[in-house]
Amino acid sequence: MHRYRSRMQAALLPGALTLIAFSAASALARPPAAQPLPARHAGDGAFAALEHEYVTYMLREFPVVATYLGGATFDPQLADIDGMLRDYSPEALQKENARLGEFRARFAALAPATLSARRRVDRSVALAQIAFLVHQHEVRRHQLRSLDSYTDEPVRGVDWQIQGMSTTGPATRGTDREWRAAIARARAVPAYLATARRQLAAGVAAHRTPDWRMLSAFGLESTAADAEYFGSTLGQIAAANIGPVHRDALLHELQAAGNQAAEAYRRLRDFVADTFFENPRASGVAALKSEYRADRFALGESEYDWALRNNLHLTGTAAKLFEASWPVVEETRNEMITLAQQIAAAHKWPAGGAGPEPVRAVFAQLTQNAPRTDAEMMEGYRRTGERLVEYARRTGLFDVPADYRLEVTVTPPPLRASIEGGAYYPAPPFKKSGVGRFYVSPTGDDATELREEHNYAAMPDLAAHEGFPGHDWHYKLMTQYRAQISPLRWLTPGAVEDSSSMWEDSMAAEGWALYSEALLAEQQPGAPEGFYTPEERLYQLRGKLYRDLRVRVDTGIHTGRMTFEEAVTLFSEVVDFLPGPCESGAALKLDAKQASCKAARGAITRYARWPTQAITYRLGREQIFALRERAQRELGAAFSLQRFHLAFMRQGTIPAGYFSEELLRALRATAP
Prior knowledge:
Elements: H1 2-10, H2 17-29, H3 44-61, H4 63-69, H5 90-109, H6 117-140, H7 147-163, E1 167-169, E2 172-173, H8 176-205, H9 212-241, H10 247-276, H11 301-310, H12 318-347, H13 357-366, H14 374-395, E3 408-410, E4 422-425, E5 437-440, H15 447-454, H16 459-467, H17 471-480, H18 504-519, H19 534-558, H20 564-575, H21 591-609, H22 616-635, H23 641-649, H24 656-670
Parallel strand pairs: 3-5
Antiparallel strand pairs: 1-2, 4-5
Helix pairs in contact: 3-4, 3-5, 4-7, 5-6, 7-8, 7-9, 8-10, 9-10, 12-13, 12-19, 14-16, 16-18, 18-22, 19-20, 19-22, 20-21, 22-24, 23-24
């Protein structure tokens, strides 16, 4: 009240002394009536300054994340960040933990009551990010076993640099400064991987070693592929893109740096082979020394629950998620079986009997209508993108600008090893230039892959998820409103995408993409059946099914409720409707079952390496639907689906649990 009264006194006119005296006398006679305090948000200015300092520090500590986000333009201190790699040394991490502790104290000292609603959310996000990193370093000590982070980070950093380079001519890319940054990053690889060996050796001493699958895939296979990338592929890419100015000097320096990086990867491979393997040329778990053959991928129940609360801002537990997941899976499977029976009847196709057989029979029929070449495949995705955008405009689902186009691009050679089928790479949000790209990887005109993965009925689901109205629309709209989105909401603490990642961004990003798939199945004005044909809808349900199953599998394998091999078999039986264990010789005599088990093993290997990421698709989607239902109930006739979507996407890539109340308040305040 004292501060409020002082503000009022400062606003009085000079001739109001009599009124002041009267007010003072009245105050002695009776207590003043309570007055509503105007919103002051006095802490917002201090928060903005602290936030900028914190984000700049985080980008400096995570240079590859900075490249992904366009961090070199965020602050002048980061101008050279694209030429750097992270320092994982024990000394650097100790200093980082101390600095993070300082940031935590400073964010905590900003009283929520002094902050606007948006800044209260940002404060909570920052504190969770800091808690995650300190927990990862000091409790999990993940740096002792994060082999995939060590091998992937330099390659991804250079890949993203090249992807974001400026166009310098009709057939050239990259300014002199941009290529010199790539050279500097390649030169940093030997010291970076020497630190990786040091940390992995400390992990051996502490009995904190990677799972044997990671040792095989990243310790032997990725290191060899990465050596090839730096020693050969990078030079070829540069030769095809560097312009005439300083061309020879740049190519010479890049090749020299690439050769040194390649040799460093070979040394890391030798270290892994000598330390962990009995016979590096053999395959499977038997190739490793006996002490490293046990499964070591499980996060553990208490750690999983901690990650749910802190990283994903959820209130449930792994046990509850596991228990509740199976009815969801069964419901989706039953919906697929019913729809497959209807499709078979409409086409007069043989349905193959009861149970899951109609689904397999219908999928077999649909694979016959497929592109014959990669060129036809790309044209099919482009036409599908046009259909999706036209549908949204016609139904008013989104306010799509007249100049918006979903660009479908062939995956460039450097990225093909990491992109199976299709993927989306967003434009760096901190840069004023750059274009997000929906990539589709060529098959080499492989007839089987074109039929199984890219038939015409399957295309809309992938295009909706990665393209429109999924990732492409989501990220382009967020970039349009980036000035209103806190920069810390763009951060991906730990890493962009490997076992060191926090995954808080995945709840919003992957949740939105899966929500987009389902949204297109809803009835809209002028489209009583939604966007999909029944055949396309069957593929959309298949996409939903394996995201539903991921919740069961991820919580199961990381809390000891399911073994790795049980998860592989379950995935094959549920997603591909193919009965029989994946370790059974009889079942594997069928080519379809063999292919299914191979794909299932690849999926479970990813989930084992990235705990909690796999659940973000379904849980993120459910958060959006739940928030939408609340908004519809509260706003009634004033609810607008278009306004809701815009309000949600403008929140950035953080879990909806942070901002749901603020979003509803804003929708109520702006309702017509």
